[in-house]
Amino acid sequence: MAKVSANYEVVYIIDPAQGEENTAALVAKFKTLAEQNGSAVEVEEWGSRKLAYPINYKTEGYYVLMTFTSEPSFPKELDRVLRITDGIMRSLIVCKGEEGGIDMLNKIIIMGRLTRDPELRRTGSGTAVTSFSLAVDRDFKSQSGEKETDFIDVVAWRSTAEFVSKYFTKGRMAVVEGRLQIRDWTDKDGGKRRSAEIVADNVYFGDSKRDGAGDFGGAPASYSAPMGGRNAAPMGGQSDFAEIGEEDGELPF
Predict the structure, then answer these.
(1) Is residue 87 a contact partner of residue 14, using CB atoms and an 8 Å limit?
(2) Tell me, what's the pLDDT at 115?
(3) Are 41 and 5 in contact (CB under 8 A)?
(4) Cα dihedral 247, 248, 252, 253 in deg (nearest 10)
(5) Residues 6+ apart with CB under 8 A from 74
(6) What is the DSSP letter of 207?
């Protein structure tokens, strides 16, 4: 059977502290890696830009976009290399579809304050899971002149769930990156219900120690779902946490 190639885009952010020479070396390194494992490699250096939110207290990064065509196994290896390379602040790989196919994408980033303390729970097999809501202000005002707020449900799994439960409390500002999930379920009266929630891949602190309610207590600046262990949620009912399969993970801009 012929192996299927697909088109990919990767955006990665280089720490400005790397300097001009090291930045150029990193760009060349990832381009060479893509050329050795794929084809149609193109690189666009967007240069220094302001980050959407601070990463490790830094507000700027050097953005690079690289497109390539390869078999599905290479992007996973590229993702691993990006994660362990010094000087790479963040990276995101998106599959643009098989050659001649239709592009699809499910990616969401929100920033808001927790409306309650996260509660850590576990499935029957011991998988950690927590759910919480973020209060996110809309960027426009209503006719009455007041800003309205959306309350968005989020669910996190495994190590991300443990990270959120340990370091986040009600009122803390959080940045969540993940995917939108629509779930159909049946309530106790037999009625059909539909819920929308974000399955968190990555969670970041959205405030500083001075802004938040208390100290980070030695917490890392963020938690990203590890390679090969994405926070996939079950597709069942709202409170029946079934065991789930393994998937991949990713990140924000």
Answers:
(1) yes
(2) 94
(3) no
(4) -130
(5) 34, 37, 38
(6) S
**pLDDT at 45 (0 to 100):** 94
36 contacts 29 by C-beta, under 8 angstroms: no
Instruction: Give the integer Cα–Cα distance in Å for 51 and 11.
Output: 13
Q: Which residues of the chain have pLDDT under 70?
A: 1-4, 97-104, 208-253
**What's the longest Cα–Cα distance across the chain?**
65
Paired with 133 in beta bridges are: 153
Handedness of CA 103, 202, 36, 15 (dihedral sign): positive
Listed residue (127, 151, 150, 136) closest to 233, CA to CA: 127
The tokens of 168 are what? 């986040």
User: Which token pair is 8?
Assistant: 């990919």
Are β-strands 192-205 and 147-157 bridged in parallel, bridged antiparallel, or unpaired?
parallel
Question: For 59-74, what is each residue's pLDDT tens digit?
Answer: 899 999 999 999 888 9
pTM of the model as a whole = 0.50
Query: What's the one-letter identity of residue 184?
Result: D
- What is the phi/psi pair of residue 241, to 5°? -80, 100
Count CB neighbours of 38 within 10 A: 20
